[in-house]
Amino acid sequence: MGWNDFRLPACGERHDNEDGTSRQAELALLTPGDELNLIREPLNEHDPMAVAIFTSRGIRVGYLARVRAIWIGSKMDRGQPVNAIVERVKGAALPGSPLGLVMRLNMDGEEPELPSA
């Protein structure tokens, strides 16, 4: 595991996207190590500090919690690279359970690594 990697849960995974895509269906396709993209949403009507989480397929699967979005988003605004991967999908082993996302982030320009088993 990278020395400056950290674990962070997502928020809002139970909601569908405005275009009708299901965040839950997209989460079901993810596996540990899959790349995630963090995108600032300054025009978000609910929170101009929002940072959305997208899969490599371009589907939004959630957001950073507001307190984390303010901190991480400000670093993104200053050009600091933020890289993220899937660490695990909560509930994946429980059929019918709502799914949640836990990711690994690195803000030093390096690729985050999964923790050793």
Topology:
Elements: E1 5-9, H1 23-29, E2 35-40, E3 51-55, E4 60-63, H2 66-77, E5 83-90, E6 100-106
Antiparallel strand pairs: 1-6, 2-3, 2-5, 3-4, 5-6
Plain-language structure description:
The chain is globular. Strand 3 and strand 4 form a beta hairpin. Strands 1-6-5-2-3-4 form a 6-stranded antiparallel sheet. It has 2 helices and 6 strands, in the order E-H-E-E-E-H-E-E. By secondary structure, it is an alpha+beta fold. The chain starts with a strand and ends in an 11-residue tail after the last strand.
pLDDT average, as an integer? 94
The percentage helix is 10-25%
Total number of beta strands = 6
End-to-end Cα distance, whole Å, is 11 Å
Poorly predicted runs: none
Q: What global shape is seen? A: globular
The number of helical runs is: 2
